[in-house]
Amino acid sequence: MWRVGVDVGGTFTDLFAREEDGDGQRTAKVLTTRPDRSVGVLEAIKQAGIDIADVSHLIHGTTTATNALIERSYPDAAFITTEGFRDTLEIGRQHREHLYDPYQTKPTPIIKRRFRYTVSERMNSNGETERELDEERAKEIAKTIRCKGIKSVGIGFINSYVGGAHEVRMGEIVREYCPDVYIILSSETRPVYREHGRFMTTAIRAALMPVMAEYFDHLESRLQSHNFTGTTLILKSSGGVMTLDLARLHPEEQLESGPAGGVAYAGYLSKNSGYDRILHSDVGGTSFDVSIVEDGKGLVTRNHELQWEVPIIVPMLDIHSVGAGGGSIGWVDSGGSLRVGPQSAGSEPGPACYGLGGTEPTITDANLLLGRLEPTLGGKINLDMEAAEKAVAGIAEKIGLSVLEAAEGMIAIGCEYMAHAVRKVMTSRGRDPRDFIYASFGGAGSLHACFVARSMNIPKIMVPPNAGVASACGATVMDFRQDMETFYYSPVEGADLGRINEIYSLLEEKGRDLLKAQGISDPSRIELIRTAQMRYVGQSYEVDTDIPSNILTENDLLKIKAAFNEAHEREFGVSSESFAPAFVSLSVAAIGKMKEPPAMKPQIKVGESPTSGQRNVYFDGKWIECNVYCGDALPIGYEIKGPAIVDYEHACAVLPEWTNAMVNDFGALIITLEL
Amino acid sequence: MNIEANITNNSVTENIVDPITFEVIRSLFDYTCERMAMVLQRSSFSPILADMLDFSNAVYDSDLQLIAQAANCPIHLAAMKFSAEAAIKKYSIDTLKQGDIILVNDPYSGGTHINDISFIMPIFYKKELIGFSVSRGHWMDMGGGAAGGQAFGTHIAAEGLRLPPLKIYNNNKINQDLLDIMLNNTRTPHFIEGDLQAHVGCLRVAEYEMQQACERYGVATVKKVMKQVQTYTERMIRDAISKIPDGVYEAEDYADTDGISSEKVKIKVRLDIKGSNIIVDFEGTDPICAGAINSPLANTMSAALYSLQFFLAKDAPQNQGMFNPIEIRIPKGSWLNAEWPAPTIACTTLASTKITSAIWQALAKAIPDQVTGSTCSECNWFVSSCLTEDGRVDVFSDLPAGGWGGTPFSDGMNVTMDPLGNCMNMSAENAELLFPIAYEAFEIRSDSAGPGLYRGGLGATFKVRFLHGGELGMETSRTLEGSPGVNGGGYSALQRSSHIMADGSSKVIGGIDSEGNWHNPLLASHKFGANETFMFESTGGGGWGDAKKRPVNAVFEDVLDEYITIESAREHYGVVIDSETMSVDESATTALRAM
User: Fold this and answer.
1) CATH code of A509's domain
2) Are residues A182 and A116 part of one domain?
């Protein structure tokens, strides 16, 4: 039987499959099919030569929710809120994305103003009723919603994170009049404070419910018609999986579903490849994603902004994305300086060398001119060298450099921008890049990894096996994960231990129930991880702090205080014994372990030579004859001295003169930089 | 590795770094300032820094020329340079040591208003001075006659502790005497040490990054690029200016009041554009006024520069080069060139917004197809001392925004902070958790925008209730006339403050009431009892172009979304909508629009 990971991306649908009881591995890559992406999922399985009846688990990363959200393509949804707050979804935090752009506009509201209704009611910040819910008005709203034929309704009231009774009652009234609509409460979605994030997440969840229901229906019926008897699991943005039943209810947990797979793979590498701290980077055609992985897990954030002023407050892997990739365009600004991106040629027209009508010079064109990319990409395509040269010549002339110098300059600048992005991510999480190995995923990642790492003084780089289908590969190593959270504000000094213990045990019980509903009840397969979101009194930001799993005592409060100071110091570079720490919310992550198939073994192509001749490559202003290696045929322990090129099935690694590399036991190429 | 050593063949002269190294180091300067901002936001304690981002950070070269800046608040743009200059004037450069940090907030030593406090630190690489890092933030309360300095008295002394340039750190050692004075002179001592630590952390990040740059590229190269970025930005700005038709363009705007008299206070601006130079001349502007809206030199310079920046090279990296083509003349004795002891607390918000509006209206005469309608032109910043249940005084603040003007391409943004800053508002739930108040509304205000082919963005209705009472100070204007439109676009609605009693009855306390009486909108220590509510209605932006030409369907959609009322659709847009069937009466509309 096969465990199949599928990642449906914007352009490609990637597949990676492992045998449940053996060492077999398969990969596939097909074009993503729109509008119904489930067609491509089945095509990928077919291309991999796997019979659907032999699939035990189909583990699926999907961009369906994200695309529908970004394009605002979903049926009209409604939102009901407290009088006075009709426009929280639209006003956001009243700031602008571009400081000096007089023509900028705000993102289209998730729910149109005409479908946002208000009702008189009020809870105070202690969760006590100040004004009763106006039931007459509530019924009026419910009737209107029925009249308009709206399919889903979000309900978000002020201070419902601490008292959700009015939301519940409002939901009951809507249900009375509209028996078939989806009804989503903010207090149930995520009972955390700050109305903008909670309302937004609730509205997004409501709006996407019908979209995901339709997609999962299609997927299920297609699978069934091919005699599928296995289990379908969906990747969550938090880095775990859930069953289809839960996935139908939680589109808001799928907004980074695809990238989460790549981070999961980095997590697997951090446990199995000999390097426990990994800086995960993924360079595709248009974007550069970075995240931090420590001890098998990606760092999680609770305030991710999917778009400007569109925050998602469910825990998500902290994946940062910047506009830099193979398609990034080089240009000369009005001051005469060479810049790269963020504009991208995308896949259409694509880089000039694709010959699809692109005329602007991209990073891919530069790599081709410098001999770093092989002009046929291993016989798959014929890249147009002349078109690339013509495109780069345009900017070279403007800045008074030769074409080759300009091409090398574009890459130097592009890599520098990527390094800034990585350093900002590290700063925002208080980490030092030099403590990490830089792991390079994605088609364009390893072309640049050495230059990006050098700029950050990172001495080691890893090019893992299956880097070209990393997200699909990661899908096959993931566990179930449920995140529960309850608001509890109190300074640590004088915190109510009885109440805290009670909350944790309730959250843990809920976690066990949710895992049980997904088929996991064996205690040895369940791990419960407690954290608290804490801050110094008066601050507005929280830091995740680890909490002991025993029944908490006064002595534990001292430990928690110390743990918080340490976490604050790590994340923000400062801490103080003289400030009073406080709890803001208490959380439990319930992990349900999947049965682990045999560890992944390196799949070295047999009968193929690890070397494949020489190629002239332009480095530091001159042509150098470099050895070229076949990445998929390198045996364990194989050593390479830069300058060299390593070609893979879906990627290519560039090793400048100042590098050495060796294939480790896991099959990963470990590159060492002379800094 | 030294990139410069490898790509040098085409360097034109030894004073110019090759284009690739240039961009690599230039982008590092920008990144350094962005990283400073991240550190300050994430480690500061007071909500006005951490939540509302009322701060800016910059790096200067050793001659105190601006190299790069991440101005969250454009109003800090040029002002920081004046603060740094004042600091260096007092402590001469040769006496400065690694680990010295000078602070200053004196409006008459390069400051703006007392609450904006600047920290200046020299950066050394191997004992050589290579530049300065400067961090400026709005501190919640520096003492004075009312919370947040909003006393609206007639003397600067009413607005808080006025600090000349002083060393808060001497060779990494804190000046405890100075800190003690500051702690003793604020309503919010609990923020002081945390915020100070955050500024210091952010200055040190810049020190680290600049030292790393010298290590990697060589100090000589870094210093060359520091000079080169300035000519680079200057080139971009000059290029943009030369595309504007030569000529003299004038406009006026005014503040409703200085808070003391009920007279309007005028700004007059004259843009003299010739080739690639602009002279901005404020000749004809009213004299210094008694109330607290006066703008010191540094503030006026900032406001004029950032206002122009929107329509010049908006993406040009910010450094000294952008100032060079622009000469700013501010008559001595005018309220835009305030002198001691004139009070200045409202300069960053009230004065600067009118400067922007006047300059944009003047520009609209030069480049009408590019300029937008006026924004709300107010920051609507209030500060309140509110009573807690146990009788303590707490200080909180918010700034409910208005709308932006219609643009040549789209409607203006709804409820967005004025160009002067980019502060976020308070989250209602966060505010209620921290302070003894209840937020009752922050909602779009129908019909508040200026009509136009592209209408202005809308303003908002804001309400906050005092659980146990309190006092509130606020500055605002646009209570007599709304934000002007351009190219035939209309004015927006009037702004207004009201006091709602516990029984629901209300009275206007700033702006025009229902009987037509005008109340001075600068509120100082206005008292609220328990469960009484402060309400503020902000205005939208001015319109762009003729409202009668707005597509009928766009007007209809606006009515469906209640951005405008049926009455406004008829009156301003000439679109007749039947309120029974909620449909457009096509023939009546055609007839009305033909009139």
Assistant:
1) 3.30.1490
2) yes
Q: Using one digit for the tens of pLDDT, what is the confidence trace for A470-527?
A: 999 999 999 999 999 999 999 999 999 999 999 999 999 999 999 999 999 999 999 9
Q: Which letter does DSSP use for residue A666 in this model?
A: T
- Confidence tier at B2 by pLDDT (50, 70, 90): very low
Q: Give the mean model confidence (pLDDT) for residues A63-91.
A: 95
Q: Does A420 touch chain B (CB under 8 A)?
A: yes
- The DSSP H or E segment spanning B429 is helix B428-434
What's phi and psi for A147, nearest 5 deg? -60, -40
Residue A450 covered by a domain:
no
Q: Which residues of B touch A412 (CB under 8 A)?
A: 3, 7, 20, 24
Residues A253 and A188 in one domain: no
Chain B neighbors of A115, CB-CB under 8 A:
none
Q: Answer yes or no: do A98 and B314 touch at CB < 8 A.
A: yes
Residues A254 and A206 in one domain: no
Residue A231 lies in a domain: yes
Interface-testing mutation among A574, A579, A658, A659, with chain B (most B C-beta atoms within 10 A) = A574
CA angle B296, B299, B301 (to 5 degrees): 105
Outline where A308-429 has alpha helix (H).
363-369, 385-399, 403-428
What's residue B152's pLDDT? 81
Looking at residue B3, its pLDDT comes to 39
Measured in angstroms, the CA of B37 and the nearest CA of chain A are apart by 11
Q: Cα(A39)–Cα(A33) distance, rounded to whole angstroms?
A: 6
Name every chain B residue with its beta carbon within 8 A of the beta carbon of A187: none
A448 located within any domain: no
CATH number where A46 lies: 3.30.420.40
Residue A124 and residue A198 in one domain: yes
Q: Using CB atoms, which residue from A105, A402, A412 is nearest to B24? A: A412
pLDDT tens per residue, range A566-620: 988 877 767 777 789 999 999 999 999 999 888 888 888 878 889 989 999 999 9
Q: Are residues A61 and A117 in the same domain?
A: no
Containing domain of residue A382, as a range? 328-415
Number of domains in chain A: 4
First to last CA, chain B: 74
Sign of CA dihedral B510, B49, B532, B386: negative
Looking at the structure, tell me whether residues A21 and A90 fall in a common domain: no
Instruction: Say yes or no for a CB contact (<8 Å) between A195 and B3.
Output: no
pLDDT tens digit string along B306-356? 999 999 988 888 899 999 999 999 999 999 999 999 999 999 999 999 999
Query: Helix/strand/coil (H, E, C) string of B173-219?
Result: EECHHHHHHHHHCCCCHHHHHHHHHHHHHHHHHHHHHHHHHHHHHCH
Residues A78 and A61 placed together within one structural domain of the fold:
no
CB within 8 Å: A405 and B422? no
Q: Positive or negative CA dihedral for B44, B46, B47, B52?
A: negative
Contact A339 B235 (CB under 8 A): no
Mean pLDDT score of chain A: 92
Mean residue pLDDT of chain B comes to: 93
- From A55's Cα to the closest Cα of chain B, the distance in A is 47
Of A555, A576, A592, which residue sits at a domain end? A592
Q: Do A400 and B12 touch (CB under 8 A)?
A: yes
Residue partners of A425: CB distance under 8 A and separation at least 6? A290, A291, A292, A318, A320
Residue of B nearest to A619 (CA): B6
Main-chain dihedrals φ then ψ at residue A289, nearest 5 degrees: -105, 135
Question: What is the CA A547 to chain-centroid distance, rounded?
Answer: 26
Provide the CATH number for the domain around residue A173.
3.40.50
**Option in A83, A113, A409 nearest B20 (CB):** A409
Q: Which of residues 283-302 of A touch B (CB under 8 A)?
A: none
A314 domain residue, yes or no:
no
In this structure, the answer to whether residues A203 and A236 fall within a common structural domain is no
Contacts of B424 in chain A (CB under 8 A): 93-95
Using a CB–CB cutoff of 8 Å, tell me whether A624 touches chain B: no
Which of A577, A592, A607 is a domain's end point? A592
